[in-house]
Design brief:
The protein is of the alpha/beta class. The protein has 14 helices and 15 strands. Helix 1 packs across helix 13 (366-380), helix 4 runs parallel beside helix 5 (105-118) and helix 5 runs antiparallel to helix 14. The relative contact order is 0.16. Bound molecules: nicotinamide-adenine-dinucleotide (NAD).
Length: 417
């Protein structure tokens, strides 16, 4: 298989993850890097052996050089997806594009149109579609082992400290600088549910709000920063406990600690908590995204799905129950328990390779499997290796926007057929 050359756009957490998988697999080589942060850019250039004249301070400068690679990894922040994706697609690059495609529908449509018009492969990083667990579950459904799918109950247990890290103190805490949490966190879940059903719902309703990480819930005497706080030890959301406990654990140093600081000692971490956003009291931040939300979906044939996303859980694999006309599946993100109504027999499948659910663990094997599928699809031209395409990704994002409309207007939203 020919080696795929890659331009890395955004050498942050996610971009580096995909680039490392690509290089480690032997199927890809990073030949250009666009990254405004000089330290990140230099680190990526050194790690991947990129020629100095192929290192750029941003995607616009990279694009000005024309087509520098077969494909581009676009892993900039949520609001910076449309412009690089459209420009690089127009130059003929295949795209591995981080989710969400964009923070609004018009920009997502622009990206899908650019992919179509240029005939490029567009893989939106819905990594959950690619895990061994999902592959096994999808096979169970598609082989008809539980009959016709009538209802699904799905939980995304975000995790109390993950909520505090990403959605209260971190990058995805505000709708005006990022997007609603259903899009930034659970476009994965909506996309995954549509993958299982094989179609989009006809109607959606949704409820949810920010109910806890607010000034009204601040404990008496709490300080603005955990390092100064007299009640920090009794707070489950203590930044001191969360980040100091990462030291010495390679997976947690890689995520979430590396988002907070490059330091790997106590003094350095405390310094970051004293000055940076991740040391703030969770009841004294400028966050406005929800901390719990439900989405109800109805499909054209009457099948239903209820989805819950909640901060108030351990951070764990998603949990799902699928109810069919002739069988039932209960999945805990690791194993699948299948019950056959005709025989009453139960079977347990254990498709997972032991990978945990978080970014530090590679999202249950999904990061690696998606990278492999993308590189092989680019090298061979076999589009079927990708479990989704521009049109399907756009359709699943549209369901998210419809659900947000339903939540914010208190209505049931009907989707276009
Ligand atoms: N698929 C998943 O499971 C998953 C998980 C987490 C995050 N994400 C998504 O991945 C994306 C990146 O998240 P992250 O955590 O890696 O963020 P990050 O902030 O670590 O990385 C983004 C990088 O883009 C760089 N950048 C900014 N402007 C640029 C420009 N003009 N040209 C090139 N690079 C530029 C930044 O300097 C930064 O290094 C986001 O859209 C996020 O929502 C996806």
């Amino acid at each position: 298989m020919p080696e795929v050359t890659l331009a890395l756009v955004g050498a942050g957490q996610r971009g580096m993850t995909y680039a490392r998988h690509a290089v480690a697999s032997g199927a890809g080589r990073v030949t250009a890097v666009a990254e405004p942060d000089p330290a990140r850019r230099a680190a990526a250039v050194a790690e991947f052996g990129v020629a100095p004249d192929r290192a750029y301070p941003g995607w616009a400068e990279l694009a000005a050089a024309g087509r520098t690679a077969d494909a581009a990894i676009v892993a900039t922040q949520d609001r910076q997806h449309r412009d690089p994706a459209v420009r690089l697609a127009d130059l003929g690059h295949h795209l591995l594009l981080e989710k969400p495609m964009a923070t609004n529908e018009a920009e997502a449509v622009d990206i899908a149109d650019a992919a179509e018009r240029n005939g490029i492969l567009l893989a939106v990083c819905h990594v959950l579609r690619y895990t061994p667990y999902t592959e096994a579950l999808k096979r169970v459904v598609d082989e008809g082992r539980i009959g016709r799918l009538i209802s699904v109950e799905h939980l995304e247990p975000v995790g109390w400290w993950h909520q505090a890290h990403s959605f209260v103190r971190g990058n995805w805490r505000r709708q005006d600088t990022s997007a609603p949490m259903l899009l930034t966190k659970s476009c994965h879940d909506v996309d995954w549910l549509m993958h299982l059903f094989g179609r989009a719902p006809a109607r959606v309703a949704s409820f949810g709000s920010l109910s806890h990480f607010r000034a009204a819930d601040r404990p008496a005497g709490a300080a603005a920063r955990c390092v100064d706080c007299p009640v920090e030890q009794s707070c489950p959301y203590s930044a001191k406990r969360l980040y100091l406990d990462c030291l010495g654990d390679p997976a947690r140093e890689s995520w979430p600690l590396s988002v907070v600081t490059d330091a790997r000692d106590k003094a350095g971490v405390l310094q970051a908590l004293r000055t940076g956003p991740y040391g703030r009291c969770v009841y004294d931040c400028d966050n406005d995204v929800v901390d719990h939300q439900v989405v109800s979906m109805e499909f054209a044939d009457g099948a239903t799905c209820s989805f819950t996303m909640s901060a108030f859980t351990p951070m764990d694999h998603r949990k799902t129950r699928l109810m069919g006309t002739t069988g039932f599946v209960e999945g805990d993100g690791s194993t699948l328990r299948i019950v056959d109504f005709l025989t009453g027999r139960e079977q347990v499948l254990d498709p997972l390779t032991g990978a945990g659910p978080s970014a530090g663990d590679g999202h249950g094997g999904g990061d690696e499997a998606l990278t492999d599928a993308f590189l092989t699809a680019v090298a061979t031209g076999d589009r079927d290796l990708l479990h989704t395409d521009a049109a399907r990704s756009l359709a699943s994002h549209r369901v998210v926007w419809a659900a947000e409309r339903a939540r914010t207007t208190g209505t049931v939203v009907t989707l276009q057929g």
